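Consider the tokenized backbone below.
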């Protein structure tokens, strides 16, 4: 299948954490837009790094190839600095020093989060491990990626997070990891300002990932039935929605004005004009505001409009 040139046809992208969920969809949408996409993660056909999840980086690249894109799967544990160093040495060698887009979507915290535990009741080592997997990995990866971009005075680093503010997210260790991603984007933007390299954070809304579909015992074809279990599921979005947000950002000639900020996929859909795969423009924050929780609880503040 021959793919027509897209807006990112001459770009090189790396999605760190492209095994499943948002990372997998972002990898596919970047490739559909024409970019050469390196897809990294721990799970391959030789073995899954996450108990109970079958997805692999090999499958992500196969999905890219099936649509005529160019994807390269590389097994990397981003907590291992030496593996990350070798990854970027390979990218530098194969792409003549070029790296245009880095998406930090490394997570690995689902199996470590106990939502019903206060921080002193929570397993301490799991909480600390969460920071290692979801924060340290982003720092290590950006540390090795940034020099490739700085050398060419161009590039975009996107931190994938959950939420747009610094409020508590239901679990201290989870909150710390997700808030840290926002501050990493803000801090990197300051340090990278004179290098013309952009750093920002991006959050989906209620993400209808493979794991979430399994949790609600539905498929993408009948996903609306999940709203009988949780009414807010009706405002959920596919991982491709945030993938299209990444492509829109990477294609924006005025992206420099967005550096250091945090954005929500639903807002970007309205400002850039893209939709989810069914043609809709879900906006979870607006849905929350229109359908208050019962009994009344404090709602998260809607994100600032870009």
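A designed sequence for it:
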């Amino acid at each position: 299948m021959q793919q027509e040139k897209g807006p990112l046809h001459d770009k090189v992208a790396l999605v760190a954490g492209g095994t499943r969920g948002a990372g997998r969809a972002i990898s596919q949408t970047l490739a559909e837009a024409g970019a050469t996409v390196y897809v990294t993660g721990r799970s391959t056909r030789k073995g899954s790094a996450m108990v109970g999840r079958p997805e692999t980086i090999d499958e992500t690249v196969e999905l890219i190839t099936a649509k005529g894109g160019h994807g390269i799967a590389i097994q990397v544990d981003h907590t291992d600095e030496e593996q990350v160093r070798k990854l970027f040495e390979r990218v530098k060698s194969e792409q003549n020093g070029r790296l245009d887009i880095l998406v930090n979507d490394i997570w690995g915290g689902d199996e470590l989060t106990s939502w019903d535990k206060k921080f002193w009741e929570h397993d301490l080592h799991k909480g600390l491990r969460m920071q290692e997997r979801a924060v340290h990995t982003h720092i290590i990866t950006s540390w090795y990626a940034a020099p490739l971009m700085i050398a060419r005075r161009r590039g975009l680093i996107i931190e994938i997070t959950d939420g747009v503010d610094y409020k508590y997210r239901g679990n201290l260790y989870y909150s710390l990891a997700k808030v840290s991603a926002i501050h990493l984007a803000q801090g990197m933007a300051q340090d990278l300002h004179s290098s013309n390299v952009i750093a920002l954070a991006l959050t989906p809304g209620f993400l209808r990932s493979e794991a979430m579909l399994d949790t609600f015992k539905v498929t993408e074809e009948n996903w609306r039935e999940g709203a009988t279990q949780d009414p807010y599921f009706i405002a959920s979005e596919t991982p491709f929605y945030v993938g299209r947000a990444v492509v829109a950002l990477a294609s924006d000639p005025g992206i420099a004005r967005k550096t250091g900020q945090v954005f929500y996929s639903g807002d970007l859909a309205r400002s850039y004009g893209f939709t989810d795969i069914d043609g809709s423009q879900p906006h979870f924050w607006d849905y929350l505001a229109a359908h208050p929780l019962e009994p009344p609880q404090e709602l998260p503040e809607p994100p600032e409009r870009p």
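Residues 12-210+239-290 form a domain with the Rossmann fold fold (CATH 3.40.50.720).
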